[in-house]
Design brief:
By secondary structure, the chain is an alpha/beta fold. The chain has two domains: 204 residues, inorganic pyrophosphatase (n-terminal core) (Alpha-Beta Complex); 124 residues, Diaminopimelate Epimerase, Chain A, domain 1 (Roll). It is built from eleven helices and twelve strands. The strands form two sheets. Strands 1, 2, 3, 4, 5 and 6 form a six-stranded mixed β-sheet that branches. A six-stranded mixed β-sheet has the order 7-8-9-10-12-11, with helices on both faces. Strand 9 and strand 10 form a beta hairpin. Helix 1 crosses helix 3, helix 4 packs antiparallel against helix 5 and helix 10 packs across helix 11. 44% of the residues are buried. It binds manganese (II) ion. The site of manganese (II) ion (MN) has 6 residues, from loops.
């Protein structure tokens, strides 16, 4: 059965359902340890989808380890003792479930080699379908939707404890149901989780809470806003000096790029985060421009309208490379006949 999905149309609903059924069978029958991991710099979908799956499997009597470190604003989701530090090695005879990680290199928390079986559940279109069973559904708004469908496939009796992180993944990956990936599927899934009893307004309120230093950082980052390419590209910078001055980590600084993308006339927005020997860029796009194309060119990847890359250069050079890649993307866009 390994690799079955690779020969089928990835967007086929039937193949998706078959993939989930296969994963459900494996999970139901698994007697040994299970390790659940996700991508580096875990976001709400990474934390939410893994925590929901972990809690559900534990309630079914499975031995599950979840080595993940949530960013500060998501820390409230986890109970003490639920999460573990990164694993040096996989336990013998373990099943590894990798969630929301487009490729093996982005997955962290445990070595990815040495599992008896590896499951790959994801919604990134760039996922290379690693693992023994890969269920990759780019049409789904969040990996949390896959987890919802998987647990339904298993006939799981939903609890608020499992539904809350699952709904969190859907909320954060859709920008609270505002982004282009918001569709009936995710809204229906979210509605069913609310019906389980998740305190929706409390959850969305909690998800907006930030450390006071976040707002100081926001002020400094907004002071660096620059418009390029006739106003079609907007950039902002988060420097190491700012981080040293303010002290707060930039765990959830992706909010900042989400904010500047609302400048009128902008097609591409980017936040450049200065690291020790590289610059991490978070890119958002609109009006047909592809953040994914820009970031792929810079050695990264992601979704069409939200993508990222790590550039091994200084801020100036990275800004220049970003501008060049954006110019090429906008030129490509201009060359496409209107309406196609
Ligand atoms: Mn996701």
């Amino acid at each position: 059965m390994a690799g079955m999905e690779t020969t089928e149309n990835p967007t086929s609903e039937a193949a998706y359902r078959r993939g989930l059924a296969e994963v459900a069978d494996i999970l139901r029958g698994w007697q040994g340890p299970i390790v659940v991991v996700s991508h580096v710099d875990p976001d709400g979908d990474a934390v939410g989808s893994t925590l929901a799956l972990t809690r559900a499997l534990r309630s079914l009597g499975k031995d599950v380890t979840l080595p993940i470190e949530p960013p500060r604003f998501l820390a409230f989701l986890a109970e003490p003792g639920e999460l573990s530090a990164p694993l040096e090695a996989l336990p013998a005879g373990c099943l590894l479930a990798v969630l929301d990680a487009a490729d093996k290199d982005r997955a962290v928390g445990a070595p990815l080699e040495g599992a008896v079986k590896t499951l790959n559940l994801d919604h990134h279109p760039t996922n290379d379908r690693f693992g023994d069973v890969a269920v990759v559904a780019p049409d789904k708004a969040a990996t949390a939707v896959l987890v919802k469908d998987l647990l339904d496939t298993m006939g799981f009796a939903w609890t608020v404890a499992v539904a809350t992180p699952c709904l969190t993944g859907m909320l954060t990956d859709t920008g609270n149901f505002r982004h282009a990936n918001t569709d009936r599927t995710v809204l229906d899934a979210a509605g069913e989780l609310i019906e389980v009893g998740v305190p929706y307004a409390e959850l969305t309120d909690q998800l907006q809470l930030r450390h006071p230093d976040y707002f100081k950082m926001l002020g400094e980052v907004m002071a660096t806003v620059e418009f390029r390419l006739g106003g079609q590209l907007v950039t902002a910078r988060l420097t190491r000096a700012m981080r040293e001055r303010i002290g707060q980590s930039d765990d959830d600084s992706d909010d900042f790029v989400g904010l500047i993308r609302y400048a009128e006339g902008v097609k591409v927005a980017a936040l450049l985060k200065e690291r020790e020997d590289a610059v991490k860029i978070s890119v958002r796009s609109r009006d047909g421009a592809s953040a994914q194309a820009i970031c792929t060119e810079l050695g990264g990847g992601g979704h069409r309208v939200a993508a990222g890359a790590t550039v091994h250069a200084d801020l100036e050079r990275t800004a220049q490379l970003l501008e060049e890649a954006t110019r090429r993307e906008l030129d490509r866009l201009a060359a496409v006949p209107a309406g196609s």
